[in-house]
Amino acid sequence: MPAMRGLPLAISAVLSMSIGCGGAPRDFQPQRVANREVSELTIFDDEGNDQALADHLGSPLVLHVFASWCAACRVELPALMQLETDTHIPVVALSIDPTFGRVRALFGGRAPPNVFRVDEQDVRRELGVSSLPQTFLVDARGRVRVRFAGARDWSDDDLRDLVRRELGLEE
Q1: % of the chain at pLDDT higher than 90
Q2: What residue segments make up the domains of the chain, in order of their start?
Q3: CATH classification (class only), 19-166
Q4: Which of 97, 116, 117, 126 has its CA 20 to 30 A from that of 104?
Q5: Distance CA 141, CA 104 (A)
Q6: How far is 119 from 96, CA to CA, in rounded Å?
Q7: CA 114: distance to chain centroid?
Q8: Whole-number average pLDDT of the chain
Q9: How far apart are CA 39 and CA 99, in angstroms?
Q10: Residue scoring higher pLDDT (7 or 61)
Q11: Rounded to a whole number, what is the distance in angstroms from the first to the last CA of the chain?
């Protein structure tokens, strides 16, 4: 009987599984993604207004999925947000937090205008996200070119060059 004591807890953990938070991988090699579009996602701004992610397409962008409770996400986020400032490559960050209050708190009370909330089930279904953080390089037509699973150092010059190359934005 001693082996049975942990069984209810294990069953409960499996039944309540959602997107998990992972650490940084050893390298930043992207994973190729074929025929996945992001235009169907509905996102919510700081005021709770919904809009289509398609409204943000038209030029290549970096699409990032995170959560305020994810330690790796919190560490990675400042350099990712700086990526847009330094490279002029648009970054759209999508939080899977259930409310925007946690997202606002993460950013010191007010989320930047390129940070949105998205339904966890939608991002799981549309992008196949099963762990956090995840970052997608999206072309101007809304097609995912590559995916990065896990945290990255977005201030790294080699990684920034790779992003430019993958999005066809080489200098």
Answers
A1: 62
A2: 19-166
A3: alpha beta
A4: 126
A5: 30
A6: 6
A7: 12
A8: 83
A9: 22
A10: 61
A11: 66
